[in-house]
Each structure stands twice: as structure tokens, then as C-alpha cells.
## 1
Amino acid sequence: MTDPRWDLVVRGGTLIDPAQSIAAKRDVAFSGGKVAAVAEALAGEGTEVIDATGALVTPGLIDIHAHVYHGLYIGRHADQTSLANGVTTVVDAGSAGWMTLPGLRDYVIPTYRTRVYAFLHIGATGLVINRIMPELADINFAQVEEAARTATENRPLVVGIKVRIAHRATGQGNQANAREALRRARQAADLARVRLMVHVSDTPIPLPEILDELHAGDIATHIFNGNAEQVLGADGRVRREVRAAKERGVVLDVGHASVHCDANVARRAIGEGLSPTTLSTDLHTPPPGRIVYNLRGLMSKFLALGLTVEEVVASVTSRAAAAIGKADELGSLAPGMAGDAVVLDLEDGPFSYVDGAGNEVKATRRFRTRHVIRAGRRLPAAHADHL
């Protein structure tokens, strides 16, 4: 008997791979932790074979905005809350600043099987001090040179600089701090030659002013928030500055977190043709009464809000990989790419998703995880947390 040709073969599923413009029946084989082959019907056997008949097969999901500094303030455990649900790559969005990054890098990430990248907070302590006070209420915490140095010295872990332009970050009503924090974050990102992610929910300064500072590849997260400064103008239509930002390549990221995504704003914007570039969770340990959905839950919610299956998958695979500068290795199941994949069922039924504003989105379909593949190996799947 000859040795199996592949480590793992996924047979009979419908491959949804927007990077390759594939939405068709395909077999996918993995060897040595990478994608080895893709074809309508692969010859040869694998050491392990997964029957994906009736299911969708996608690249491993990517969540570009989560908080996985487990043990520190709001951080979640990446393997338990993300990887088990099909999210093979997570980006920690500013939990750590230059003073606290070593803990995440040296003691937390090495315990995970999930692939983790990070946006470095412009604030020296990251979010840990926010439990006591706004992290940038004292602008001296925003240290450009130290942030840029740390980002540069910690590549490829650090993919960008993060700043929260919000009352609870820069001080209630403190426009001067907000503008200076944005200026310093922009400067640090430019010095380190990395992208900038800006929290734009509940901003004390005008949204167009923030968008003016963002270049192609930079990220505006919480883009569908329902606060005063949002994507919709006084007339209820999408603001021209928002359209212009997307047209020049600014990434419009959902960053849901329940309280940072108003379903009515999202529905109106999508109806006017402004779809999000990426879906992300802002996964964290929430206070009592707040529901934080996992990425599959958000995929289901935005499917109900009008995105197609292909658009939903692109927003958490190919587009997400591009948003963090990793499209050459993640976000697709082309041969040679990282061997991360998820087998998903799209099940029928009445489902409901709520947000922090009390809005409800009723859905007739939702994504469920059947199998998770990380580095070419099948892992146990889970249906934990909120769908």
C-alpha cells in the first residue's frame, strides 16, 4: 500500500474563494501546513479525509479587530473564542501599547494555536489604564518615537498603529486631545511605515476631519456606529467624504462590538451601495447585558442585511488579509498559501441579531462551523459564544 499523497483532503464542498474568483465544487488538499492542490476532483488520498458534501469551504476566517490579550482587562482567549469557531487569524486592535506589548508577545501569543497579529496602541499602556481613566486623557501617554520604534522592532507581529478618537479615550469633549492624538498616531504610523487604524465611534471631532488623515490602506473601524458623527449626514444619506475615503482605498471596517454598529445605519448605507470593506467583531469581555457576537454571527447578520455570500466571505478572507498586508499568504486557498480553512454549513431557520441601540436584524440563514483547519490539520470545532 502506498503512502497517502496528502496530509488532509477536503472533498465535495463548494469552495468560496473570492481571491481566486471561485464559487464552485472543489476538492482542496493540504500538505506540510500549506495548501497543496485544488481541483474539481483530486486524485489520490489523504492521511485524513473530510467529507464536505453540502457545505461551504472557505479560507480560514480573519478578524482584523479583536482583543485577545487574555488576562489583561477586556482580553479574550483567542483559541476558545475565535479559532474554535473558524477564525484562524486574529488581529488584536490596540490592547497593548509600547510598554505592555512584551506581555502579549512573550506570554500570551505563544500559548495560542490561533495566528495573532497586533495593532499597537499609540498610548503607552494600551487599553489597560482605561479601566481607571481615558487612556489618552493625558496626551503625554501618546509617545510617537517609542510607538514607532516598538512597531518597527516587532515586525511582523505589529501590522499598524491604533488610536481611539472617542470621548472615552481622549477625554469627554476634549477636542484638542483628540486632534493631537490623531496627529501623533499618524506620525508614528508614518515613521514606522505601517498602516493606521482609527476608532471613529463617538468621536468628539468631525468624522470628515478624521478621514482626511487616512491614506490608502489605513482603516476606519466602527464605521457603522450610530453616534452623532457617523457615515450618514443630516439628510440621512451617505456623506460624500465617506464615499471619497473608500474610493481612495481607506478600509471601512465594521468593528461591531454591539455598541459600535447600529443596524439601521448599516442597512441604510448598504442600501446606498456603501458596503463595508471588512467585517470584524471587536471581540472583548463585555459588561453585563451586552452581547458581543463572534465572527460567524456577524457574517450571518450582514448576510441578512443584504450582502451576498461571496461578499461576506471576501470581507473576512481576501479583503481582511489585504487590510493587514498579508494577502500573499492568507485569505485564499490557492496552492502555496497558508493551510487554514473552515468548512461551514449555511443553515435555514429563524434567527435574530441585536445591537446596542436595541435594533433587531431578523435572518433566515446563518453560518455554522463544521470543521476548522489550521496549518493543514483539522481541529475540533465549537459553537460557543454568541452566533
## 2
Amino acid sequence: MFIDFNFMATRFLFDPPRRPKPKIGTGLKSLLVRCPSTSKLTDTGRTIKEKLWPTAKVKAQKFTCAHCGGVHTWTKEDVVLGRPLQ
């Protein structure tokens, strides 16, 4: 009996299940906010369906900026809708 040990499994039975990737074309958008220090867009880590955005109510939120390291506050008026990260 010959056993081939060159075969490597890519997933094991004890691996946690993977998150399903967002389907492209569902209208899912990332909420991006411009950093006041560097003027670069930063992802807030939130997503929303594009058709729900006009009626969405958003309270003032805070996030730590990836560009300058500062904590910024943003509102709905500050948001730019962009493609979700994959």
C-alpha cells in the first residue's frame, strides 16, 4: 500500500467556519469618512445597502483614523459611500 505524503489539506476539520464573502451586486456599500488632518478617505468599518442610505438615521459616531491615529467624530453628512472591502 502506497501513501502519498505530499498531499496537503487546505482546511482541517477543527478550523472555524469562514465568514461568507459579501455578494457583489447586492448594493452593499462601505461608509467612508474623510480624515480632517490628511484629507484621505478612511473606512469606518460599517456597511449599508445603498437603497437604504437615503432614509437611514445615523447618530454621531467616533472612530480611530488609520491615517493620522486620531479619534474623529462623524455624522451622516460626512459619509461617502464606497465599495466594500473584500
## 3
Amino acid sequence: MKRYFSRLILSLGLVFAICPLHAQHLFGNPECFGWQSLDDKQKTLWLNAFLVPLNLTNVARKKPVEDVFTKLASLDPARIYVDNFCLLHVESMASVGAIQYLEALTAEK
């Protein structure tokens, strides 16, 4: 069973590595104007489904010294970031804000 999940994660990683900008379609991609109507639980569930696999591929590509994303106590900072992003970019997609959050969080300092 563990081997199955390892292969699944590897497969998802390959999909995201090949087409990271289209990864949001696997989990849906709320538009910013609709993002604000979601409750915090829905936002957090979506962010978890979107950012966890994206971070896995990010870590695989960039090989950071420390995986900061996996050490977050909660996804509240990501939710707040995307909330603010969507308020400023109503015509955009939530995934754009989420990707920006992950990139800022995992950027080499």
C-alpha cells in the first residue's frame, strides 16, 4: 500500500512538473470574485488540495535546504494571502495567488 502511494505521489509530481500552470484544473480553480463567497473551511480544503502536491513538485525541482511549507502550523497564512490577492485581482484566479504565496514562501533567502 505504501508503495502505491509513493507511485501516486510520483505520478502527480510528474504531472505537475510537466504542466504546473495547468495543475489547478485537477482540483478546480475558483475565480477570485467567487473566492470571497467560500467559507474558510472550503478555502482551506482547496488550498490543501492545490498546494500540497504543488509543493512536492516544487521541492523536487528546487531541492531547498528546508521545506518551509510542510512546517506550517496551518494554512491560515496561505488563505489570508489568497484572500488579499483576490481582493486586489478580482478578475484573476485563486490559483495565481496560491502559486505566488508558495513561491514567496519557498524562495531562497
## 4
Amino acid sequence: MSVTALRDFDGGIIGYLLIGTDNSARKRAEAELLKAGALQSAIFNSANFSSIATDEKGVIQIFNVGAERMLGYTAAEVMNKITPADISDPQEVIARAEALSVELGTKITPGFEALVFKASRGNRRHLRADLFPQGRSRFPAVVSVTALRGDGGGIIGYLLIGTDNSARKRAEAALLKAGALQSAIFTAPTFRASPRTRKG
């Protein structure tokens, strides 16, 4: 509430003006901002997700603890230095650029553009990519790519959130192996299912 003293020409107080506003909308907005901030903090500080934010040219600006754990680089080693394409399988990036060029009828340059081209056109993009952690063998990841836009609608950067897909790949391989084994058993010419005989 705002309180203002009302004075006469001689400066003497002749009354007070009290102006009040309903503060509930502001409180709700503050609560939503706090909630969004907590959610954003949880995402960027999670060790289970690789969160990488870039500028509009693809140069890494944010590299969270999950990215450090998953990729073996420190934030200081990559921020303002490289793009996410530099830690992706180069052959895969080239193949993706070629496939996009054919699909869209326009030349897509191998590199960061191949990773974000569809996201830059307004589509959230989910990629399966092989990443090259520092000091370790490569591993499969699922990466969600989103274009970040400023107030005027122009792209100001990209957000890439990745998860390690190794466990799923191992599970799929185990299922394929089990299915192949089962198929081999039931289709083998020497295998005969004999009915049980009843004693009696």
C-alpha cells in the first residue's frame, strides 16, 4: 500500500491518501518464476542429463555437470571454443548433412548446421547420435535440439539435452540375440516337440 500525506499551501498536513492494489497476481507471478527457476536449475545441474546451450553460431556457452560427466570435458575446456558437432561422430554428421540435403533439396553443410537445421526451422529435433567422450570410447545418445529465440523471434542459440542411450542399445541387442536363439531352436530341423504321454 502507498501512503501519501496531503498538504495545504502552508505545508501543513490536511489528510492522507492511501492507494492499495491487489498483490495476489504479483505473488503468483513471483511463485511461477521461482518454480521455473528451480526447474531450470534442476535441469542444468542434473548429472543425469547432458545440457548444452550454444550461441546462434553453435559455439558452446553452457555445459552442465551432466555434460561434463557424460562427455569427459570440463566446461572450461569447451565453452566459447567448440560446437557440439566437434564431439559428435564426424562420419555421422556428414551422413546426416547428405541425407538432409537430399530430403530438403538444399545443400546442408556438414557440421553444426546438420545437427540443428530442422530445429532452426521451428521443429524440435530428436537425434540419435554417437558422441565421443574425452578419454573414452564413443557411446550412443539421444539428443533433443531446440532453437532458442529472442523477443523479436530471431534465433539467439540452441539447447541440446542428451541422455546416454547405451543401456537401451544393450537391451535391444539382448532381445535380438534372444529372439534369434529362440528362432533357431524352434526352426531347427532336428528339433521335434513330442507330446507328453499319459500314464494310466
